[in-house]
Design goal:
- By secondary structure, the protein is mainly β.
- It has one domain: Pnp Oxidase, Chain A (Roll), CATH 2.30.110.
- Helices cover about 10% and strands about 40% of the residues.
- The strands form 3 sheets. A 5-stranded antiparallel sheet has the order 5-1-8-9-12.
- β8 and β9 form a beta hairpin.
Length: about 180
């Protein structure tokens, strides 16, 4: 039997983080999403992402920002491993909640839904950035438009983005 990996163990971490996500950054790609080497000039740029052969240089200009309602967004990754088939893959799902159903938001949902290759970054509440789907990208996999019943019910949209890849979610660093 081959030794496929070197294990190093995990230590108990400090209790110095929080859950949830605060923003989602999305860029459409027409052909490819890849990783490049990190820039060395010390500027504040996303390091290691290339869209359609062009290196991402600025989060604010290369991605659209989707700000989330506090304590509503989630990001979950599930690993699936099959001994019988010899396969392993990871499914990353980010769920973003937006209050108030409006025509402009429904149009944005439509445009996201018909796009076949999205580069999706999630910013968690600890200030870390994570990329769904690594080099295969992500898609809108589900949405719900809810008008509620009572005056205090949510009137808004929930959009789920899903990425599936051979490796776990990738942390993207800003320099």
């Amino acid at each position: 039997m081959a030794l496929c990996a070197t294990l190093s163990g995990l230590t108990l971490d400090c209790r110095d983080n929080v859950g949830g996500i605060e923003e989602v950054y999305i860029a459409a790609a027409s052909g490819s999403i890849a990783f490049t080497s990190a820039p060395t000039d010390g500027t504040s740029v996303i390091t290691n992402i290339e869209l359609d052969g062009t290196a991402v240089t600025n989060l604010a200009t290369d991605f659209d920002t989707y700000q989330l309602v506090k304590q509503t967004g989630t990001f979950t990754e599930t690993g699936t491993f099959s001994e019988e088939n010899g396969t392993a893959f990871y499914t990353s799902v980010a769920s973003a909640v937006f209050n108030k159903v409006e025509g402009a938001k429904l149009l944005e949902l439509y445009n996201l839904g018909i796009t076949t290759l999205l580069c999706v970054l999630v910013k968690d509440n600890n200030g870390n950035y994570w990329m769904l789907g690594n080099d295969r990208g992500a898609l809108v996999s589900n949405s719900t438009t809810d008008f509620g019943t009572a005056f205090g019910d949510r009137n808004g949209l929930t959009i789920e983005f899903t990425g599936i890849d051979q490796k776990p979610v990738t942390q993207v660093t800003l320099s």
